[in-house]
Amino acid sequence: MDLCHVPATREKGWYLALMAPNVKGPNYAWLDPSRLYCHPQGLQDCVADLLQPFQGDAIDMVAGIDAMGFILGAAAAATLQKGFLAIRKAGHLCVQTVAQPYTDYSGREKVMEVRTDAISPGLRILLVDQWVETGGTMRAAIELVERLGGVVAGIAAICMENSEGGKWIQERYKCSHCVPPRLQPRFDQHQ
Questions:
Q1: Taking every annotated instance into account, which residue ranges of this chain make up the domain Phosphoribosyltransferase (predicted)?
Q2: Taking 90 as the threshold, does the pLDDT of residue 28 lie above it?
Q3: CATH number, domain containing residue 28
Q4: Which domain holds residue 51?
C-alpha cells in the first residue's frame, strides 16, 4: 500500500493492511507495524480508534512498552496531552528501577523494568503496546504499575489476540484494540 494513499472510506482497522508480514523467522513477531506508523493518516486513525473507548475516563499518564509500544504510546500521550512513561527491557535505565521477569511471545525469558519515581499511588495509567499475543509482556507491565501503587486505567494495543493470556487481560481490565471482530480469527491464527 502506498504510504500516501488514504482510502475514500476509512473503516476501523483500514490501516491494518499497512503492516508487513514477518520474513525473518520465528524469533520475530508475525506482523510489523512500523509501516503503519509511517503513514500519517493511518497512525492518526489507529490512535483515535485505540483511545475512543477511554473518552471521558480519568487517565493521568500513558505508559508504552519497549520498543514498538513507545511509538504508539507516545502518540496516544500526545493526543491525550498526558505524560509518557517508557517501560523498558532491563538494563537500559540509569535510575532506580523495579523489575519484573516475564516470558515473551516467542517463549524467551526476559526482564522488564520501570523507574520507581514515576508512578505514585493512585496514578491512573493507560498501558499501550503494539500487540498482545500471549499476554506475558503486558502482564509484566501491569505487575510493575500495580506494584508501585498505580492503577491500570486501561490497556490498548493494535491487536489483542484471543489467547489464554489475552483473555485473562480482557476479563480484568478495560481494553481497546483495532482489529474488527470479523478479522479477529485471522489475527488469532496469524494469517
A1: 56-178
A2: no
A3: 3.40.50.2020
A4: 15-188
